[in-house]
Amino acid sequence: MAQSAAVEFRIDRRSGVATYLQIVQQTKQALRLGLLEPGDRLPTAREVVEATAINPNTVLKAYRELEREGLVEARRGLGTFVTRALGGAAAADDAPLRAELADWAGRARAAGLERDDVSALFAAVLDKTFEGDHTG
Fold first, then answer.
1. Of all helices (H) and strands (E), which one includes residue 128?
2. Taking every annotated instance into account, which residue ranges of this chain make up the domain HTH gntR-type (predicted)?
3. Nearest-5° Cα angle at 62, 61 to 68
């Protein structure tokens, strides 16, 4: 029996990103990092609602989008399960990069940057790095 995944959705109501898309993005991130694997069960809509106080239809919309993309499947009466990983073995190979990024994030925080500042800075650097790359 597959166990329930240890993924907790964090909803940022100020981000300007639709709530259901935040769930989709966070699920994909967990897949890329290897935190979710095929066979893992996503939290039920009820569990997400209890943890985040969002509308159950929002959770279901996110799960339908993930299902449409072929990442999860709903099993009637059992829940929603991961069917495919993202990023493959890259998660294990990323350990040195992750350590460097964690070190950088720590320095940014020590320099007085807030979470949103760090996020904006990182997004700007990513945008510049992948400029013109429309693959992902």
1. helix 115-129
2. 17-85
3. 90
Q: Write the pLDDT tens digit of every residue in 27-50.
A: 999 998 888 999 999 999 999 999
Q: How is 42-72 classified by DSSP, letter by letter?
A: PPPHHHHHHHH---HHHHHHHHHHHHHTTSE
Assigned token pair, 78: 């059992």
- What is the pLDDT, as a whole number, of residue 1? 43
Residue owning tokens 């898309």:
21
Strand, helix or coil at 2?
coil
Distances (CA, A) of 74 to 21, 30, 52, 66: 18, 18, 21, 10
> Among 39-53, 107-121, 122-136, which stretch is predicted with the lowest mean pLDDT?
122-136
Neighbours of 44 (CB within 10 A): 16
The Cα 30–Cα 7 span in angstroms is 7
